[in-house]
Write a structure and sequence with these properties.
Length: 345
């Protein structure tokens, strides 16, 4: 016995092609591609992309077919979704009279209520952002004091000139940075009973270790510890040992701390007769220094350890740093980030 006939006609070839395109566009955004890129690749207006996302949110893939968009009115129209996407990707909560500078589900939920009178649960907001190809991420903090012209000058002229000098003289380029490790700096999570925050006991003592390291685009790494504050004299001492250990001319690139570019440092470099060249990164631009990743990696591991005294901390820090030093592939990966790939070999 045959079932009841459907009132809907099968889509024409043209209608099916339009549906397939809409689905491909929505799938691309759901995979994480930006709306701007998807709009350009598929040659459709960004407004249409947001409309199709709105249809999909209301009725799934079925709603992308022509004549199939029935049911309750949508809470979020394509224009509203477009507005939300631009607000999150092009601005920050401060522009909408919020005191916090990071986008949270709570802030976005409140902003939708204020701006459009729409009340969504946090889980609905989370799904909406996911449908827009957005995800929670740890932000990179950059100083508002950065000078774009100085950054451009360094990347397009200064560093290429240093690289050419290294090729001409056979010098090795090293990026240098210092860091401090504290006994009370912990991060990470631990398993425990639901509803009961775990308590981790430590000695309660506060002590720290100061270190300096240098990495090269070849995968080399050197490090040392020092007591007290970094000074020009201590920096010069490290550079001297680095030059002797490498056995070749070196080009040292460090930040703009006074002990990196003071009179004593400049005199030492001048007296080296070209064996040591010391150059500074643009001000307020630590993200351009691949050596920053040494400390991000080391601190991540050390922050999960407990130390009874400074001796234990130093031993653990040296173990971690030696393991990084022995892993050339890891060091080379420090030169493959968006902000550091300019310095890769």
């Amino acid at each position: 016995m045959k079932g009841p006939k459907s009132d809907r006609k099968a889509p024409t070839v043209t209608e099916q092609q339009r549906y397939d395109k809409r689905r491909s566009v929505v799938e691309a955004v759901l995979r994480g591609d930006s709306v701007q890129v998807v709009s350009r690749v598929y040659n459709v207006a960004a407004r249409s992309v947001f409309d199709w996302l709105s249809w999909y949110r209301q009725g799934g893939w079925h709603a992308l077919q022509e004549g199939r968009r029935s049911g309750r009115p949508r809470k979020m129209t394509g224009e509203m979704i477009r507005w939300l996407y631009n607000a999150v990707t092009l601005g920050n909560p401060l522009q909408y009279q919020f005191e916090f500078c990071l986008w949270t589900l709570g802030i976005i939920r409140e902003m939708l209520r204020r701006q459009h009178g729409i009340v969504l649960s946090k889980s609905s907001v989370c799904r909406l952002l996911g449908n827009l190809g957005l995800s929670p991420q740890r932000p990179l903090y950059r100083s508002y004091k950065q000078d774009p012209k100085a950054m451009d000058e360094y990347l397009k002229k200064e560093f290429p000139a240093l690289r050419e000098e290294a090729r001409r003289s056979g010098a090795v380029i090293f990026f240098v940075d210092e860091a401090a490790i504290r006994s009370d700096a912990h991060r990470g999570t631990t398993w425990g009973k639901v509803g009961e925050t775990p308590v981790v006991l430590d000695s309660g003592q506060r002590f720290g270790l100061r270190l300096i390291s240098a990495v090269s685009p070849r995968g080399d790494m050197r490090f040392a510890s020092f007591e007290g504050r970094m000074t020009a004299e201590r920096f010069i001492e490290f550079v001297k040992k680095l030059r002797k250990d490498v056995g070749r001319p070196i080009i040292v690139i460090a930040d703009n701390a006074s002990y990196h570019n003071g009179k004593a440092v400049k005199e030492y470099a001048h007296e080296s007769g070209g064996e040591v060249i010391i150059h500074n990164l643009p001000a307020y631009a630590p993200e351009l220094n691949p050596d920053e990743q040494v400390w991000n990696h080391a601190k991540s591991r050390l922050s999960r350890m407990a130390f009874i005294n400074l001796k234990e901390m130093k031993a653990a820090a040296f173990r971690v740093l030696r393991s990084i030093q022995a892993d050339a592939k890891l060091i080379l990966s420090f030169f493959q980030l968006t902000n550091t790939e300019y310095a890769a070999c």
